[in-house]
Amino acid sequence: MLTLLREPRNCNASWEILPADKGGILKDTVLTVAKMAASKGIEDEPLLRSLDSPVEERPIDNHVLPEPEDHDFASDVPITNPGRRAYISTIILFLINLLNYVDRYTIAANLIAIQATYGIKDNDSLAGLVQTVFIIGYMITSPVFGFLGDRYPRTITMSAGILFWAAMTLSGSFVPDNMFWLFVLIRGLVGVGEASYTTISVTIIGDLFVGNRRTQMLMFYYFAVPVGSGLGYIAGKGIAEAFQDWRWALRVTPALGVLSVLCILFIIKEPTRGQAETGNHAIASQRYLEDLKALLKNKTYLFTTLGFTSIAWVVGGLALWLVKLMELVYDYNGWKDTSVSFIFGAVTCAAGFLGVALGTVGAQAYRRYNPRADALVCAFGNILAAPFLFVGLTFAATQVGLAWAVILLGEICLFLNWALVPDILMQVLIPVRRSTGNGMQLLSGHLLGDALSPYILGAVADSIRGGGQTYFERYQSLAYSLYMAVFFSVIGGGFFLAASLTIEGDREHMQATLRDCQQTEAEQGIIVVSPVQPATIITNEDVII
């Protein structure tokens, strides 16, 4: 007769008494009984559940039991060779992210035409509201998708969100000229669809790769931000001019969105959360409130989130208003302004390639000498971008070539941290908390960042300009308002410097948590098979003779 006790599902839970075995046919098995106390100073996480046990879960006929085998705990080490499918999945995620940013910046490329269509040509604050409402929809739902991403199938969630995004983008192109507020509302719903993908997709890459390889894959994934932004300006303007209607620029990307969903469902195989770091082990999710409490206690996460918010404020404002500022400069000098979107798109693409690559490679090299390298590179990029942006805004009207050159250098500096911020998040958060952490970071970044900056900058420009209507007066008022972006860039650098002081301790804390869970499983794991039910994996403390 056996008395079965089910192990606690976390370190503090009580044991559960199960019915005694009545079959009486269990083979003699050497049972090792071990209990590991929860380590002090390590956050209380659910135990890791083995996914690569020697006996698979399958029905057993005629009460024939398999011979017990030793578990190979060498498989518990991080996966350093993820396989070809992981790289294919990353390429697909990159292309979808690229598509998202192409659509997002199509609006900025055609902002003047949109203002003319809806009769708000001289109202920059209302024009800025188009982007602000988009970001509001994006940021409000990011925590929701973060919650879903840590608990439910991520490929299904992303696919549903992309289909919704495609439908809203297409419908926005059919809004009549006298229904501006409906267009604004639909752009907010487009943001909801984008949030479903952006919040979750990066965590899949985090579960496929580890270490420097993960940093490299994140670098590749985040190339989509500058490239997609640049293509949004170039393709968005080009399609609008080809069809003589900016609405057609919103009718191309939805079809590609549907194709993206097919790739997600039929090609990407969703990894186990924490797969790359724990060697194909699953980690149970905790309660949502526990996740939020842990995020608030993580100083590196908080400082990085504030730094990310500053970046979002700067980039959100520049992305919408810098093109218009340069178009006003071209008009002031008597030049044709239709080339501005193409030039700005090319500058953004080049800056993105150089910035993301230099930031990632530079951080990897600097890690050999300083474990705080990621945060320090982010701080360096933000602080160095400020003087370049200041010079470009100040001398754009008289020195156009100089303005384009320093805008390029400023954007390179801002893009240094684009792949490093999510990499820092993965270094200091356990795998089952990363979607939640990313969602809350996006909420903060957009709520206090690029949801506010387009509208605030437009309103400040209107206030400074007063009744002035000349090209120079409109340029000057907009340039003065954009000086706020210079200030926020420096503030962001300060937050990343603060993160560099805490990142080592928080990184060690996360790694110790994973080791604690793996060691607990290693000391408790054993195979016991029921003669009636399918073979299952339970622990040696489940059985007492």
UniProtKB/TrEMBL annotation:
One of its GO terms (cellular component) is membrane. Gene3D superfamilies: MFS general substrate transporter like domains. The chain crosses the membrane at residues 86-102, 126-148, 155-174, 180-206, 218-236, 248-268, 301-322, 342-363, 375-396, 402-421, 442-461, 481-503. Residues 89-510 form the Major facilitator superfamily (MFS) profile domain. The keyword Transmembrane applies. It is found in: Membrane. It is a multi-pass membrane protein. The keyword Acetylation does not apply. Keywords: Membrane, Transmembrane, Transmembrane helix, Transport. It comes from the Eukaryota. GO terms for molecular function: transmembrane transporter activity. Pfam families: MFS_1. Belongs to the major facilitator superfamily. Spinster (TC 2.A.1.49) family. PANTHER family: PROTEIN SPINSTER, SPINSTER. This is Major facilitator superfamily (MFS) profile domain-containing protein.
